Sequence to fold (1183 residues):
Amino acid sequence: MTILKNRLFWPAAILLVLLVVNVFASNQFITIQDGHLFGTLPDILRGSAPLILVALGMTLVIATGGIDLSVGSVMAISGAVACLLIKDLSDQNAVGAVLLIVAIAIAVSAVLGAWNGSLVALVGIQPIIATLILMVAGRGLAQLVTDGQIINVQSSPYATIATGFFLTLPVAFLIAMAAVALTGLLTRRTALGLLLESVGGSPAASRLAGIRARRITIMVYVVSGAFAGLAGLIYSANIKSADSIYAGNLIELDAILAVVIGGTALIGGRFSIIGSVLGAILIQTLTVTVVNVGVPSKATLLFKAVVVVALCLSQSLEFRQKVFGRFKRPAARVEVPA
Amino acid sequence: MGAQSPVLEMTGIRKVFPGVVALDGVDFRLFPGEVHALMGENGAGKSTLIKVLTGVYDIDGGDIRLGGETVRIGGPLQAQQAGISTVYQEVNLCTNLTVAENIFIGREPRTFGKIRWGVMRKRAAELLAGLDLDLDVSAPLNTYSLAIQQMVAIARAIDISARVLILDEPTSSLDASEVEQLFTVMRRLKEDGVAILFVSHFLDQIYEISDRLTVLRNGQLIGEFETEELPQVRLVEKMIGKDLETLEGLEDKAQRSRARTAEAKPILEAKGVGRTGAIAPFDLTIHAGEVVGLAGLLGSGRTELARLLFGADKADTGEMAVDGKQVNLRDPQIAMKKGIAFSSENRRTEGIIGDLSVRENIILALQASRGWTRPIPRRKQDEIVDKYIKALQIRPADPERPVRNLSGGNQQKVLLARWLITEPRLLIIDEPTRGIDVGAKAEIQKLVAELSDGGMAVLFVSAELEEVLRLSHKIAVLRDRRLVEELENTADVDADRIMQTIASGASS
Amino acid sequence: MTAVDMTPVTNKNVNPRRRVYRPNTKYIPILATLALLIIMYCSAVSNYDGFSQPRVVVNLFRDNAVLLVVAVGMTFVIITGGIDLSVGAVISLTTTLTATLLQGGWPPLVVLPLVLLLGALLGAGMGAVIHFFKVEPFIATLAGLFLARGLALFINQNSIPIRDGLWTTLSEWHLVLGPRVYTTMTALTAVTVVLIAAAVLAWTRFGRNVYAIGGSADSALLMGLPVGRTRILVYTLSGFCAALGGVLFSINSTSGWALQGNGLELDAIAACVIGGVLLTGGSGYVFGALLGVLVTGLIQTIITFQGDLNAAWTRIIIGVLLFGFIVMQRLVTRRAK
Fold:
């Protein structure tokens, strides 16, 4: 009963079922080929990397009671900046130069995050509106960077970010896991997690407890921007070009969904990093499974939609009470009358 | 009046919450054309009774008769249809709509579905004129003061032909002239035969306006009285009951320890500190080991003063010095660095963080002052938290339980623990005993006395004069957002003396 | 106008200090948008040849008919304090379904009400989920977005031409307003929708309840207003408007395609914000949304006239405008507090 009550039980169970389905449905679930893992599972892990990254940043933002709609645009800008700079390199395969460019692209993304954070924390605009600005304008900026063209690059170090393998594992997934570990350390080994949850739980109380909410708020948007930038690099490295129209298109919705599936409430407060990672992998697995099961590709989104609707409803307390709680008396609200 | 039959009669009302019997066999009668005050301390069951009447709570036992017929009130809408309308302290209107709309929304005059704005405005103006109000009914409600908003709420309530009008603490945020205006309206309604249930914390107002009163204590009915026949002192006795005696041990505290604090060094000195619209410039000095009580009615500027000293709000004028050194307390972090702690009166919105555990709530302020890069090691956290759970007798003694699930008194103790572990030199506590049970109240009062014995300075804000008198060495009296007098709490200072100051302003 | 007839409060008991005069606060955003629109138009007229022709203005309505209809539905939703992300997807579902059914030989007079009903039902479903299950509008309509677009892709992933007689007739029909100035069916429909919606919002109980809920849903409930019904109806209306937008889309392009309307929800929200509809709810006008749509449309027209400007500038300028208006809204509401 207690394990059933865990918020992550159902997402984890669904993920497990989907994976089992894949074991039977895909020709190769997991094997070793050319010295690295190969098959459906590694594909899922590799493919989920951008979403994991974006969902990570989104988790922190949502924990403070905010939301970041601009992640898709930031992905597009980051990819555009990187490809533009790499294209102009005399030697596109120079590792040092590519690394520097990657760092620049992430720095640009972090600055964009800081813009969002400042609007929210300093100007006091609602997060959904503040980030809407960059969401709308960002793609325009990306198009401006690429001058409306698709920039192709031929850089093997850059491609490695998305398609390479290290220690038999996909590099993209390793990057995502490194980000997860970093975020975990950053929030749970320091007091940042507590302060985030506190600011998200009650901004007024947090201020009176002496928490510098503004700084923290700006910081989470910076982190969200930087991670989105990294995700944009993986996306663009995968297709070896900058695509300012489709890079990260609608990813903000997937990321928010991953966070919600992971048990973090949109109103802020308690957050779960593992939950969001689980949510992101679940979404990616779902996409892969639909193809593997042989559901025609045109039904992919529909299938996903059905699962999403089911998940959203299952997380609504009222829904569970109204549908499943008919036979039980609803638990009395613990309330002490004033 | 005796010949009349009551419009509302409640008998044997019982309401149980998990672990608490909120109402235990309470009777209540309301006659047409009377103002009936419902009296009781916080936690007496007033709010619960009103929520039963308005259909927010279902009753677990008893009988409600309206106009002689037994009714079951299923919700606010049903209550309204049955003729029971409520106006709350926080006005429940839509302030983005116009005055006229707020009165008529849901009942707009229409032809073929089209709202007749002209007719609506005219009727609204007439209705308000009947209450001696002349407002621009097409202006949005949020352009008017809270007092006016309340009158609009009343106008709406009586226009839905209310037989019973419940006014739940309507005067808390009103100034004297506004209260007088409200009373004028109430008297007029009384003449029209409306039965008014009135809740207020201000005794003077009760005696000015009410015909009869019903006193509740700890969910039980103490009695129904004619207001004129019950002297104020007796009323207070009935409301507070024997609680006074349980606190006897603290009685002589103030005078006893006074000698020592007289020589202590001042911790905080405020000169001409003020904030426009909140509190007029004041001088106040707080010494180590001293309890300074702030007395005054709600809205007299007590809370506003306390907030300035912590930097929760920024002062516009004046100078503050801590340990003789001038500081600009422009935000809470600066005050905390100087060893000042502040616990807000709004426990739920500005105090606890409901989602977080007791442990996390307790260490929050200490952690905030260390910054996020220097976390308190978990072992140390557990140590501190265990110590304070024991010392303050926080129940249940489970550090990992979400603080939301604790009772008000225990939440208050969690907040005190939060500040005590920062080892402040000046503790500012605003209404720490409001809305909590008597036992917890006594414990908190005892704690304050002990802290001051230990050398901590305490600024104690409370609506209850008795409490302020019992604990304070020095009492600052506020009235109309002005600090009017500072008194040493000597033997000859009593509640009457302070009431006089509050009523008449400075005596000097 | 409120400023003029606001007579001083005569009652002596009322403390005049407490009465705060803030005339026209609620009109500031919409007036600012109007001013911006006029300035933009005038400067465009003086800079570009041919901009002064009435055709340019009339065509604004033609080119933005779909967005206009969708923005009207969105206005209702936003005034209640909600948001509807599904509108773009409902458009693609409608166009795809319409084209498929017409291709399958269904009579157009059955298809038309059917797709409109479907849009309304989808909206009602989302509204019900939001109201009964307390799912946040953002999430519920996001699920609706996935569902509607999923259905559209499931029906057909490709662009389907419409050869139905009624559709082609409607597509070709136009009303001549003057020499070389004509307007289309879709533009007229959009303008009609704006007028009806404005009347509903201003003059019906339902319209006022929408504002009340946006002001304070708790108060509305305590005042006995049908909060649940109104809320569901608002999403139903938005779904209907989106479906109507889809129909207009299919008439304009005589085709249906599942990728049509992609991202239109953002344009609609942006138009509402620029038109002074407060995203926090409780304030805004249908005419504001109209002005917002016209502003974004005018930007596009100007960029077309300029010729050498990158199309990306449209989004950037809209972003900058959003920023300006949001900051202005912030200042206005801050002053109101």
Remarks:
- The longest helix of chain C spans residues 227-253.
- Residues 1-23 of chain C have pLDDT under 50 and may be disordered.
- Chain C has 14 helices and four strands.
- The interface with chain B takes residues 2, 5-7, 9-11, 13-15, 18-22, 25-26, 203-205, 208-209, 211-212, 214-216, 218-225, 282-283, 336 of chain C (CB under 8 Å).
